[in-house]
Amino acid sequence: MYAESDLLPLSALQHICFCERQCALIHVEQVWLENRFTAEGRIMHDRVDSGKSETRRDVRISFAVSLRSLRLGLVGKADAVEFHREKGSDGKTIWRPFPVEYKRGRPKKNNCDKIQLCAQALCLEEMLRHRIDGGALFYGKTRRRQDVALDDELRMETEEMSRRLHALFNARKTPKPVFDQRCPNCSFISYCLPETLDGKKSAGRYLKAIREGK
């Protein structure tokens, strides 16, 4: 169990899954740079961060739900949590929680978004003492929801990413850059300088390329 003072932002899981250097720049060095993609994502989240609730037939929806897990050492908010009304085995009504995370773009090939969603579910399980088997990701570009099964494999990956996040914070050291296909659309590329600092180019060759206009 982690102490309250050791809790880290749940949103940082998505950052460390995408790039450890980006995560350290944001959460350790406290740098934030915005581009069109981050601006669109912020605007999209502003619409669901009201903290209000809605009821639609057998579903209650709460927005901007506060989350915490002392086991994972995480704190944050869920964009939305739906509570689905069902009949329990004893015939009594139960409200089953179902987290929904809103994303600006399209479904990703990696598990970054799923890990963030799974972490939200694990927080809710700890808070509500109720097993959560699924959630959903809503993507702004496709305007569709993608259901996500919160199976054992995804849970283990989420817990491992949480441990990596705590290790990164405890080290207080920003990893060196590595230039790859993730970099061109990253808002941090002008600050991170992955092509210059990734160790594959010497300073001499870099300055020579500048002089020669390459």
Key traits:
single chain; 214 residues; alpha/beta; Lambda Exonuclease, Chain A; 2 domains; seven-stranded mixed sheet; 37% helix
How does this structure look, described?
There is one protein chain. This protein has 214 residues and is an alpha/beta fold. The protein has 2 domains: 4-175, Lambda Exonuclease, Chain A; 176-214, no CATH class. The chain has helices at 12-18, 20-27, 36-46, 112-128, 152-171, 189-192, 194-197, 203-211; strands at residues 8-9, 53-56, 59-69, 74-87, 93-103, 134-139, 144-149. Strands 1, 2, 3, 4, 5, 6 and 7 form a 7-stranded mixed sheet that branches. Strand 5, helix 4 (112-128) and strand 6 form a beta-alpha-beta unit. Helix 1 runs antiparallel to helix 4 (112-128), helix 1 crosses helix 5 (152-171) and helix 4 crosses helix 5 (152-171). The radius of gyration is 20 Å and the shape is globular. 27% of the residues are buried.
CATH class of the largest domain: Alpha Beta
- What is the residue-mean pLDDT, rounded to a whole number? 85
The termini sit apart by: 53 Å
Radius of gyration: 20 Å
Helix vs. strand class: alpha/beta
